[in-house]
């Protein structure tokens, strides 16, 4: 016996690539960029369906990237994800976290930056509060040396409230980190430009059109 299922008329079709509703697909903003440093994006579950999130666009634009979702990862899973390369966590030094029992990170060995093909950049895609919780729940991440960003421009992330003037979107922070590591700014500019288009698209959903007639 066969059973036919009637499609739910209230369920909007989704793009299989960006996972958004087809009517708000962001695939036109994908800007593939060649990069040497591997990128591992660990995304908090609350960010998966967040329309303002930039991690999916980042992942689709970086061929040497992986995107996984979770808050607390199994120890053996993280060991597998971090195996084979020298890992650097894209995260500022936060001395205040010592009160949470988070150990200070080890120093970044400058010598490892000589062979970028053996380097992996680990990125946490979450709000500031949730990223600290991810760090707290995953001791392996606490033990990674950190990469602080230097002299970054102001954020173009106009669709999400920042808790500090220098806070960036996941996409922006990762692009600036890759520029810093690979000493190649121009190669990543098209992705930053595409991000501006993505932001404008999201703003169009909340900003009423101006009638110039």
Gyration radius from CA atoms, angstroms = 19 Å
Largest sheet: 4 strands, parallel
User: Tell me, what's the shape?
Assistant: globular
Tell me the number of strands: 4
Write out the strand line-up for the largest beta sheet, numbering strands in chain order: 2-1-4-3
Task: Please tell me about this protein's structure.
It is a single chain. With about 210 residues, the chain is an alpha/beta fold. It is about 30% helix and about 10% strand. The chain has helices at about 55-60, 75-80, 130-135, 140, 170-180, 190-205, and strands spanning about 40-45, 65-70, 85-90, 120-125. The longest helix is centred in the C-terminal third of the chain and has 18 residues, at about 190-205. It is globular and about 45 Å long.
């Amino acid at each position: 016996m066969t059973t036919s299922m009637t499609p739910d008329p209230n369920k909007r079709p989704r793009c299989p690539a960006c996972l958004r509703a087809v009517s708000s697909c962001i695939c036109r903003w994908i800007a593939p960029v060649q990069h040497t440093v591997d990128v591992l994006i660990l995304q908090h579950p609350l960010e998966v369906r967040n329309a303002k999130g930039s991690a999916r666009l980042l992942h689709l634009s970086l061929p040497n990237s992986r995107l996984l979702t979770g808050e607390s990862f199994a120890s053996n899973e993280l060991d597998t994800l971090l195996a084979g390369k020298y890992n650097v966590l894209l995260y500022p030094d936060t001395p205040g976290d010592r009160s949470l029992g988070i150990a200070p990170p080890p120093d970044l060995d400058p010598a490892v930056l000589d062979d970028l093909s053996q380097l992996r950049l680990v990125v946490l895609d979450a709000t500031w509060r949730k990223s600290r919780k991810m760090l707290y729940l995953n001791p392996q991440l606490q033990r990674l040396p950190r990469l602080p960003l230097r002299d970054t421009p102001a954020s173009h992330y106009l669709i999400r409230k920042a808790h500090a003037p220098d806070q960036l979107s996941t996409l922006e922070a990762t692009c600036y980190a890759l520029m810093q590591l690979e000493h190649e700014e121009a190669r990543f500019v098209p992705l930053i430009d595409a991000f501006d288009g993505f932001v404008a698209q999201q703003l169009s959903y909340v900003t009423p059109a101006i009638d110039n007639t």
